[in-house]
UniProtKB/TrEMBL annotation:
Keyword rRNA-binding on entry: no
Principal subcellular localisation of the protein: membrane
Alphabetical UniProt keywords: Cell inner membrane, Cell membrane, Membrane, Transmembrane, Transmembrane helix
HAMAP family: YciB
Organism per entry: Lutimaribacter saemankumensis
Protein name per the record: Inner membrane-spanning protein YciB
Family listed: Belongs to the YciB family.
Protein's UniProt keywords contain Metal-binding: no
Subcellular location: Cell inner membrane
A cellular-component GO term for this protein: plasma membrane
Membrane topology: Multi-pass membrane protein
Protein purpose: Plays a role in cell envelope biogenesis, maintenance of cell envelope integrity and membrane homeostasis.
Residues annotated as transmembrane: 12-29, 41-62, 74-90, 102-122, 143-162, 168-185
Length: 202
């Protein structure tokens, strides 16, 4: 299936909608306990159970409308199903809270493996968005590899030492802001290694 462009607002809604819905739903029922099939489930577990099919639907719609999914989107969906499913099945919120840790460790591992081979796997994913010289891609990849590893460590620290509500706030806003700020502070790489078309019309 050939890749297709869709409305950026619709794309953002499909990508971020499940996260926002999870956050709002959790705040709505976070203090409630639900008895289903003779077992008591917290609001967090119930919201997680709803988040899984929502992610499947929105990711499927993205694939249907655009004709493609990034490796990051596929890995994220698989881990949501696996770890979210374990949390619901075992009635244990720890599995879902570990999901970001696993995701970031996988991304850090993939980038790190490429660096050991002298390659920037990040370049293959983002080259069309940010044209950089090879040296720039390698430097940005090293930084992003360390950044992902750092996020994994921070996520582990937050969910293990803080309340579930604090983790939900951190997951929804803290991690998103951290990624945004990371790229905001990479201006030195973009200025130094950004490739521009030097051809001038005759």
């Amino acid at each position: 299936m050939a890749a297709r462009e869709i409305n950026p607002m619709l794309k953002s809604a499909l990508e971020l909608g499940p996260i926002v819905a999870f956050f709002v739903a959790y705040l709505w029922i976070k203090d409630d306990v639900f008895s289903i099939g003779g077992r008591d489930y917290s609001g967090f577990i119930l919201v997680t159970a709803g988040f899984i099919p929502l992610m499947i639907v929105t990711t499927g719609l993205l694939w249907k409308l655009t004709g493609k999914l990034s490796k990051m989107q596929v890995i994220t969906l698989v881990l949501v199903i696996v770890f979210g499913g374990l949390s619901v099945w075992l009635n244990d919120d720890r599995f879902f809270k570990m999901k970001p840790t696993i995701i970031y460790l996988i991304f850090a591992g993939i980038l790190g493996f490429g660096l050991l081979r002298g390659q920037s796997y990040l370049q293959h994913v983002m080259e069309d968005m940010m044209p950089l010289a090879p040296e720039g891609w390698m430097k940005l990849t090293r930084r992003l590899c360390l950044f992902f590893f750092g996020l994994a460590v921070v996520n582990e620290a937050v969910w293990r030492t803080m309340s579930t509500e604090s983790w939900v706030w951190f997951k929804t806003f803290g991690l998103t802001a951290a990624v945004f700020l990371f790229f905001m502070f990479q201006g030195d790489i973009f200025r130094k290694y950004g490739e521009q078309d030097d051809e001038t019309p005759e």
